[in-house]
Known about the structure:
By secondary structure, the protein is of the alpha/beta class. The protein has nine helices and eight strands. Helix 6 packs antiparallel against helix 7 and helix 8 runs antiparallel to helix 9. The longest helix is centred in the middle third of the chain and has 29 residues. It is elongated, with a radius of gyration of 23 Å. The model has no long low-confidence stretch (mean pLDDT 97). The structure holds NADP nicotinamide-adenine-dinucleotide phosphate. NADP nicotinamide-adenine-dinucleotide phosphate binds next to helix 1 and helix 3.
Amino acid sequence: MTIGILGLGAMGRALVNALVSAGHDVIVWNRTPGKDEGLGARTAASALEAIEASDVSVLCLLDDASVRETLAPIAPKLSGRLIVNLTSGSAQQARELGAWITGYGVRFLAGGIMAVPFTIATEGAFILYSGPRELFDEVASPLAPMARPQWVGEDLGFAALYDMAALSGMYGMSAGVGHAVRLVHEEGGDVEAFRREVLGPWMEQMFPIQIDGASPSETVPEEYNAQMQAVGLQTMIDNSAESGVPEALTGHLSANLWAMRRSIELTEGSR
Ligand SMILES: NC(=O)c1ccc[n+]([C@@H]2O[C@H](COP(=O)([O-])OP(=O)(O)OC[C@H]3O[C@@H](n4cnc5c(N)ncnc54)[C@H](OP(=O)(O)O)[C@@H]3O)[C@@H](O)[C@H]2O)c1
């Protein structure tokens, strides 16, 4: 199977490396020439040439606009081609792109990469795919060297939706740990010791509890004591201000405080 990779940024190059290492015939295209050096793949002179030479073409560009810009001039020539878009975007963008490009007879799958370039082709990496199941079954095995393939439904928007949602979890964590070390630093604490001896063990203890307890409900279970948590969260926000940390870095605490107050309001309203 010949696989086309369009987009040779940090991620596109990692995908090419994984496929070439697995012995695939890979043909690449990038808007700016010269990024194909040392990849061990064939180079196409245009996006159209790459797609026409490939059994499946993977797009890994910057954003939805760059995908549109690349495909728009050639879309009428792509009927019957199999294209997998791994460029990040919103769920609605994925659905609209799918509706547009399948209108030209393109067989289309949407995706979201749950990895960073240096974890591509490692055990923990996976890629979400959504769209027609039979297309996923066709590409899952050939594309597996990049990262474990995981289909999340026929709805073309779901790979992007799950991707965005999972990233929200990660950035929430990132905001929390970033704020935590800033707080310790501002007060002259030992950041290294705090990370190793306090933050790490604390996060490890709480991580499975957070994942198991994650819920779309607007009320928290009674045993989690929303009243107590609201008081605690306000203290954390006050402590942050007292320590001189910018208020903008406490957004994750404010979001939790809002959720606790909402839970209290709804629970009291139902009594
Ligand atoms: N890097 C990560 O950690 C990571 C993780 C998960 C998902 N992703 C997603 O993977 C995609 C690629 O990320 P990356 O890290 O490879 O980004 P990157 O290093 O910034 O590369 C961007 C790529 O998009 C191309 N591009 C930008 N605008 C274009 C346009 N108008 N027309 C055609 N090509 C255009 C660039 O081509 P030129 O060389 O010509 O500029 C380049 O190949 C993004 O959607 C990103 O969100 C990245």
